[in-house]
TrEMBL record:
Gene3D superfamilies: Aspartate Aminotransferase, domain 1, Type I PLP-dependent aspartate aminotransferase-like (Major domain). Belongs to the class-III pyridoxal-phosphate-dependent aminotransferase family. One of its GO terms (molecular function) is transaminase activity. This is Aspartate aminotransferase family protein. The keyword Transferase applies.
Amino acid sequence: SGVLKSDGLLEKDRRHLWHNMRPYRANDRPLVIVEAMGSWVTDHEGNRYLDGMSGLWCVNVGYGRKELADAAARQLQRMPYYPLTQSHLPAIELAEKLGEWLEGDYVVFFANSGSEANETAFKIARQYQQHIGKPLRSKFIARYRGYHGSSLGALAATGQAIRKQGYEPLAAGFLHVRPPDSYRRPEGMTAEAFQLLCAREIEERIIWEGEDTVAGVIMEPVITGGGIIVPDQLYVDEVRRICTEYGVLLIIDEVICGFGRSGRKFGHHNYGIAPDIVTMAKGLTSGYLPLASTAVKREIYEAFQRTGEYDHLRHVNTFGGNPAACALAMANLEVMEKEQLPQRAARLGEELLNGLKRELADHPYVGDIRGFGLLIGIELVEDRDSRKPAAAAIVQSVIDRCRAAGLIISKNGDTVAGMNNVLTTAPPLSSTDEDMAFLL
Ligand code: PLP
């Protein structure tokens, strides 16, 4: 039902619409999605696909949730907009709810996208350091292969060269260290030693830069768009220790890992650490409307409660915390709670990981299979001894064949480093057991 005729739609698309991250090809055929329900999407020609990427890693509760649409519609009719220079009920209620979900004493600022949530975090971190008498602390340390967004600060924090080349100069003061990618550790080194080495590189960088010049460390719990790099407990504990010891704020980017994706409410809950700042977007509304958030520990918020004219956070955005988006996010969180979707993601993720290991363990092109909740990566190599990344054409051919069979998956990594060779899947947390069997 509701399926459109092709009649020139793709030609119109090519003529008028500029896509994200999509190289121009004269015969390009992007999916034009017209309907979606559960974990499935339908294109304009009536073809159905299992959405193994939850859109762009965000449709955590699946498509077609009437209660989310209703919550937004009710709020749009009652009071569609008011800025958060003042206040409104949906934002107050959602901020309180996010505090519960974070399981810590956090205060919440709203924005519209993950990039903006991270930009907000950087500004808060710098100003906080000034407020506590450390005005030189302006730098941030991030990891290669990490992704933090497309705006000039969030992109500066990103550790994937291809996304940055040609767009410089970006925001200054962002430094990178190696990711804890044990699959690509030096020969002869234990995974444990390598994980420690990676964490200690952050400490060394802080010392070399001058510890009084570093404001924060930003990291995803698990590097996602950079190819599903899952750190050991040891690494995360060590990063937390280093940040505390040197007075550097630990900013955890939960844009993908948050809201049940990891098998817990937030990715960092799997490691039992308390971040100083948490950034969120995507699964906050399951992608139904734009909304993002930056949560800070109460003591950071309180450092801004001085009385000088410029002591407050001098940061505003028109749409952040839109009432309908907040009401929808609340309904989204209630669905996740009612259906225990974080727990479901843990079970489905484990079953999928085990299934993939069973089916693909001996495949000559499969170097590594990694997972974190319902986030799975399969690293393709030319051969398993050299671990040389598989050629882009091979990786793409797997994606194309999946598409032809009715399944959307993706590839991630870092093109410049020649490592865009990790097949990724992150289906909705509400996927049925039949969906998961199909995906496998
Ligand atoms: N942080 C992470 C970990 C992301 O994956 C993304 C987007 O994919 C962002 C930040 C940026 O979010 P947005 O695209 O909403 O600006």
